[in-house]
Design goal:
CATH class: Alpha Beta
Structural class: alpha/beta
CATH topology: Rossmann fold
Oligomer: single chain
Order of helices and strands: HEHEHEE
Length: 94
Amino acid sequence: MTYYELSRRAGRIAAALAPNAADGANVALLCPNSALWACAAEGAWRAGACLTPLHAAHPEKALRYYVEDSGAKVILASEGLREKVRAKTTCVSP
């Protein structure tokens, strides 16, 4: 992935997050460590959000606790991991 591609994808993520995650709102991030993770993290920061990284290896109960405890209003989760966090928040795919 080139920096240009990373920047474009991060911009799309930031635009999707902007209505729900501006002004320092907390966003939880649950996706594999990859270029996608970098895009999602940069997109959250561009939207003005704080980031709570989550690791897919943690049990579902722990992930839900982290989301609730952090006060995350939005979860950025890749397709296969969305089901692991069934919290009362908006879920966005990076």
